[in-house]
Automatic annotation (TrEMBL):
This is N-acetyltransferase. Residues 19-173 form the N-acetyltransferase domain. Coiled coil: none annotated. Signal peptide: none annotated. The keyword Membrane does not apply. CDD domains: NAT_SF. GO terms for molecular function: acyltransferase activity, transferring groups other than amino-acyl groups. Keywords: Acyltransferase, Transferase. Pfam families: Acetyltransf_3. Gene3D superfamilies: 3.40.630.30. PANTHER family: AMINOALKYLPHOSPHONATE N-ACETYLTRANSFERASE-RELATED-RELATED. SUPFAM superfamilies: Acyl-CoA N-acyltransferases (Nat) (SSF55729). It comes from Nocardioides ganghwensis.
Length: 173
């Protein structure tokens, strides 16, 4: 697994760096979460989560890069200032499938950062044998729904306030 950061240009021309998450990112992950609006926090965790606990932050940063992978994005000016995260966690009972989550800081919405993170994460998932992402999100989260639809989400269903679907990952041709 390559842990080097790569520079990515977003559709609006902004440059960001994307790299694998590190266990030393836990405190910054908590800070980034605390800066999210209540609506964004609710959309990400589908519950009222006022803060990311130390144990949650440790779990989200202690990845093995095969069954649990996460990438963070940061501005070129400060590699500790996390502005987005994309992760997958493989299902032990269905190892070809992994849960997908993408979170982007409120001030970075609408610039293409979620798309860039998903692209990098997808390449890693394919490299370690994940064949399908499953995703659940709030049914009113139009930004994430649009992102996942553009990535090929199928079998979209809505049950109450929650939408779900999956993305079949295809190796590059």
């Amino acid at each position: 697994m390559d842990d080097a950061a790569c520079e990515v240009r977003l559709r609006n021309g902004d440059a960001v760096w994307i790299r694998p998450i590190r266990d030393t990112d836990a405190a910054e992950l908590q800070r980034a979460f605390a800066l999210m609006s209540e609506a964004s926090q609710y959309r990400r965790f589908m519950t009222g989560t006022p803060r990311l606990t130390d144990s949650q932050a440790a779990y989200f940063t202690a990845v093995d890069h095969v069954d649990h992978e996460a990438y963070v994005a940061h501005s070129p000016d400060d590699e500790t200032w996390i502005i987005g995260v994309a992760r997958f966690i493989r299902y032990p009972s269905a190892p070809d499938d992994a849960e997908l989550a993408v979170t982007v800081a409120d001030s970075w919405h609408g610039r293409g950062l979620g798309t860039a993170l998903l692209r990098v994460l997808t390449a890693r998932a394919i490299a370690v044998g994940v064949k399908r992402f499953r995703a659940e999100m709030m049914a009113d989260n139009e930004a994430v729904l649009s992102l996942l639809r553009s990535a090929g989400m199928t079998d979209e269903t809505v049950s109450g306030d929650v939408a779900s679907g999956h993305i079949v990952l295809a190796p590059p041709s």
